[in-house]
Design brief:
The chain contains five helices and 17 strands. It has 189 residues and is an alpha/beta fold. The protein has one domain (5-188): 3 Solenoid (UDP N-Acetylglucosamine Acyltransferase, domain 1), CATH 2.160.10.10. Strands 3-6-11-14-16-17 form a six-stranded mixed beta sheet. Strand 8 and strand 9 (101-104) form a beta hairpin. Helix 2 packs antiparallel against helix 3. The longest helix is centred in the N-terminal third of the chain and has 16 residues, at 24-39. It is globular. 30% of the residues are buried. Mean pLDDT is 90; it is low at 164-171. It holds the Pfam family Hexapep_2.
Amino acid sequence: MRKTVRYPVEGANALWQLYQTVSFWKVVKNFVVIQISRYTPFLKMKNWLYRTFLGMKIGDQTAVAMMVMMDVMYPELISIGRNTIIGYNTTILAHEYLTKEYRLGRVSIGDNVMIGANCTLLPGITIGDDAVVAAGSLVNRDVPAGAFVGGNPIRLIRSGEPSDQVRSQVGSSEDAEEEIQDDSNTILH
């Protein structure tokens, strides 16, 4: 179950009442900062923008790819651990506006997490350390540490494994380098 706080509204749908729930000027500032961040290729600058102007917690050596869309209204509810990768065109939401209510929830992403391209993370979720989220996934619930999840909505593909076991399954870097060179020769020639 996602951890969100519900705020009921009366009358028109919650999104129609948007600026009664969050400042117009906050949204404008956040939008400008997020759009600059989406297009900048400079990771340190991007993380500085997120920390300084959006109040997000971003760990050292975290890489947020181009076109990632952070929550425009409540980015301060998002925290990302160190040495984590957020893949291209991923959306991270900390709010959801519905017809009769809106909901807010923290999004907490751990250390050494890999989130593939084109994922959507819903409000109120936690992704544990060393987890992997497959590209194109909808993260609608918590992801345990070390787990590999994927799909829409996500399902568990593999539970956490000790990191030594995972490394031994991957093989040596020399083997991988030889395979890459073989592929390059096939493709380029």
